[in-house]
């Protein structure tokens, strides 16, 4: 199986974190193809940045068409995820979606630990779009400026642990999601120190993508995830053009 | 007041329909600036097409920065709407949002009449994102292929009237929204023939944009509609770059 | 356009505050007709008081029948609003409804700042009746006794500002509503001092009433806002009788 | 125990139906005091008519103050119910509320059978205000004009039975409510003919009022059902004045 | 009327508390039959313990078949309640269900006071299953270890009072439920000391069971509370076997 | 990895269907251990039957303690699932939960195809307990009596296909779940004939159980899925006793 993992922001250091965690999770027979957005911002925290990231992810998905059996959009918040599902005939997985659907099997109420205050509104809307707001116990977040997206885990380890404990004791969380690609791999590190199950988006997404690939559940030829109806288009980058004109 | 109206799809004939309805609604002292997406598809019915439309709308909003006092994203479904609200210091209005908030003052339960089956899933998600799913009585839709987005009103007048009556009598609608730019102006034509109030997105959006401009409610310097935090970006079209680097 | 603004409580000082803010907002060609409830209480904070206010508002609407093109029920909580919509052929607008539908276009999550603890339960139910509970970030309130409904703004300016800031920072509000006729005009005063958009019910209601009047969306001859079915009645004040026996 | 049953519409024939069913249900030691609205309409089907009925019911409750140990507002839709709970120190029970809370103990999903199409919107809003919309399977209704509110049961017996069966088989109802005072007593008659439990509002309200009286759960001195804060009032009928000025 | 009250946990001391409160509430012509689970745990706080308790309650209900006219499952959280309703032709009442439906007639927003932190998750799910999560103001709980389920009321009286006051003042509760059989009777004791109505599950359940018995609303022969379809079974205790093979 | 799959009903023919589908899905290094309930009914369609099945499943899980790395409760409706998660230190997966969480990654709106009318109420409640009612498009069901749980697929193939198509075209389903162990494997057979993705519970549960085992997300030592607090118990079968007294 060939798995395309798209980092929809432009930071190679974040791509590296994602790749490292993906490689810890992936099955031996899965080939990973990493890609980093060619345009956009260093880290996605808002709806506008997600619009940029979703577009950049789609361009990559189109450029690589034929080279993969499943795709991961590797930013929590899942920029462009539902759009890509319409145009691709392979499973498309998002970090939030995969983490929520995995966490939901480990506990009834879920808390998300995030890396900034600003990002929490966008995350909340993403949980709501997944239809799981009723199972969200809380979103807790770091409240100090980040020195570097690549070193969040080291810089804020103690505070992340405290936030996790507050989510459990104050908010009623049964399970935690450490959210955002900069925290990729941290769940693995904290698992022993926390009294509830904890997951991160990258490993969940890799595992769910493999699962969906193996299930071969069939393609959407009708319903709202069928390909968009054929119609004129113009002015699009080659990648996007490719997605609209598949046989 | 200068009002930028962006058609996020590439069809000049739809832009013309939008403009005609906008001019019927607009106040004498409002100047209208029309713009048509330079890239994308002929008509937006799906999430992927909305991703293209939202991106194209943002490019235009950035290119025209400084030339307008309010913006309308003139496709029902509101592609890119929340994203643009983050980066602009003027009111940004969507057709769905404006129609819903207007209709909600005319009746408790709202039905939407749409031009295709495919488009209804996207519309429903948009109503949900507006938080008004509890007030949605139904979405009814034309079920025959459209000959031309520019002549839907003439080709399907009788069926649109029947759908409206079904929404009232079967679904409990108190008020109707004729949805989608190709139906712009139809509400005006049918008003006398229908036994409940009926609105369309274009006239609602023009009226609400003028209202918001006059209220001068203040800018978002905090909260989730403040500008995205400053951070590196790369590879963006000039319009998008402009939106990220405003003083 | 002739706009009837009904203060459903008996306080002339509150009517004056409402009128002053209405005159700041209104279009030049709109004539304002103010009316104060002839019976009821000094200030509406509860469901029982709202029942009194709704009845008194309906009496006035009936007595003035034919003298207006739109009506505003000018108490936050909207006493009698849906009832009046059934019997009047002109737009009827409430402060809560208008403020919510306006605020919802300025931000995703809305906080309400209220003048007493007691009033918050009634407000919350009103938000729920509008179907927008999912977009309510919080209701914050003054917690000290009010010296005078007419001087709340001066007496509590600093605390109102603090409450607004808490709503933004603690509750995730993107936009604020300063609620209740005694706060009419305060949004205008605070706009520069708050980091998010802020609206009040009076100016929103005036603006939305004008908007609905201009749209001429059509009358409800079916659906749940059509006139009540003709049937015997007895013992009603002339104003209410007039509403039931219109041609 | 003295039980005041207020018919909030002006029809003595409906009062008689209510009384007959109440007497079939009531405990031997309960005295029933019937009262009919002195002003209002013949039958309440809409929000405006409910505003009239709620006001008329409050006047009666005030005039009879001291003469009862519990009150029933005896129209489905519960006009004025929450308002009266604020000002009275005895249990106040509504037909919809009592029927819903009783039915909810007999089945998970509830259908309501109503006597007209128009009335269904108001009923639905009342179910929503009770917070039980999630348990509503459907509202089915007679669709032919009523000859007489007093003879609905005889005139439409067969159709009421058919509607009940459709609610069970098509809508998934586990339990039925025959709604509206004109159907008072019909549940008793149909019980043997229907394959699920069936209740009506009058007998539920009488039974729940007795239950609440016996429980003596305590008075609301705080919270949103405490008496409205003391404040000036003017121009009110003696009954309403009495409610506001209790010791 | 013969009323079977099943304590689904194995503690005779809790059965005694339940019986004492039941006897304070019950009508003179009702005979009470107490039963204590023969297997299970000392006190039910979790879903697993509820599974044990529901099974044990069903065994008793089957063993006593024919000896009662109504059944109460006397643990807050209602283990096995919906299951028993399917197989019994008499009313089956749960403490949570009865307390919620009673409290909902005394106030709009309800708080529950519980005896341990652990128990709150299960209670919340039970409120949600009743469809009343929207009316739940909060669940507050004792946070110190219980010395003895039989003496909670004495040991923690002051803290229970404080929790009640916090629920009213901080959470907006209009009415309180003192939850869990170990608190049976406490509501009666605190009623005078609390400024809102307060109920407990046992007295509500007894009263509602009597009410449902008197209403004789009819049996479920269709719908989801009809008896399970006839089919082979094996290996069941005599009590359960009896429930499946009734004529 | 050792995977215990418990059929919570007593039908060996259903166990065989489950096993066959499980073996088609399972990874080469996973050992399957099948178990069939020793007591209960032939097929679970109702809440009471689920209570029996949940209890029987728990007994097996306790008897086999130490012999498995993950457990599947292999009846759609997930009897006993949340209870078992509390007492086991390994992943516990249910057919409904696993199918929903998988389907939710393949489409926004999900329809369930069920084998009887009666079973649909219980399924709907299970979807609601999973918090995904908002994503349920419909539950469609066979409406003719089943000749044999083991031959449903052959007997009703054409009707199952028709129901699937109705769910897509009438109800807006993007993805289908063929529900109930008797349909195990059918999704695989129909995949090519249906225009949307289709999954079944058994293969989803096997795949998700393997995924959760590999993620090693950590144990619940706090929160509502920690072990029940230690306390006296009595009279339990050895299996259940074992679950309560683990080190």
Automatic annotation (TrEMBL), chains A, B, C, D, E, F:
Gene3D superfamilies: 3.40.50.12500. InterPro entries: Asp/Glu/hydantoin_racemase, Hydantoin_racemase-like, Iso_Racemase_Enz_sf. It comes from the Bacteria. Belongs to the HyuE racemase family. This is Asp/Glu/hydantoin racemase.
């Amino acid at each position: 199986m060939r798995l395309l993992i798209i980092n929809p922001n432009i930071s190679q250091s974040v791509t590296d974190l994602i790749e490292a965690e993906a490689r810890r999770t992936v099955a031996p027979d899965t080939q990973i193809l990493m890609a980093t957005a060619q345009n956009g911002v260093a880290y996605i925290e808002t709806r506008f940045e997600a619009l940029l990231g979703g577009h950049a992810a789609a361009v990559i998905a189109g450029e690589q068409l034929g080279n993969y059996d499943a795709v991961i959009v590797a930013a929590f918040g899942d920029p462009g995820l539902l759009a890509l599902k319409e145009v691709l005939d392979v499973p498309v997985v998002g970090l939030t979606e995969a983490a929520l659907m995995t966490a939901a099997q480990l506990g009834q109420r879920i808390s998300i630990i995030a890396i900034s205050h600003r990002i929490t509104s966008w995350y909340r809307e993403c949980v709501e779009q997944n239809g799981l707001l009723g199972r969200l116990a809380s979103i807790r977040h770091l409240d100090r400026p980040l020195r570097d997206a690549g070193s969040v885990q080291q810089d804020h380890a103690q505070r992340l642990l405290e936030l996790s404990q507050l989510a459990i004791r104050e908010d009623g969380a049964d399970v935690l999601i450490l959210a955002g690609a900069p925290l990729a791999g941290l769940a693995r590190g904290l698992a022993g120190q926390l009294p509830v199950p904890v997951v991160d988006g990258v490993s969940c997404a890799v595992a769910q993508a493999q699962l969906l690939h193996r299930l071969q559940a069939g393609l959407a030829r009708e319903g709202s995830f069928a390909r968009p109806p054929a119609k004129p288009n113009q002015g699009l980058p080659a990648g996007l053009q490719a997605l609209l004109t598949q046989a």
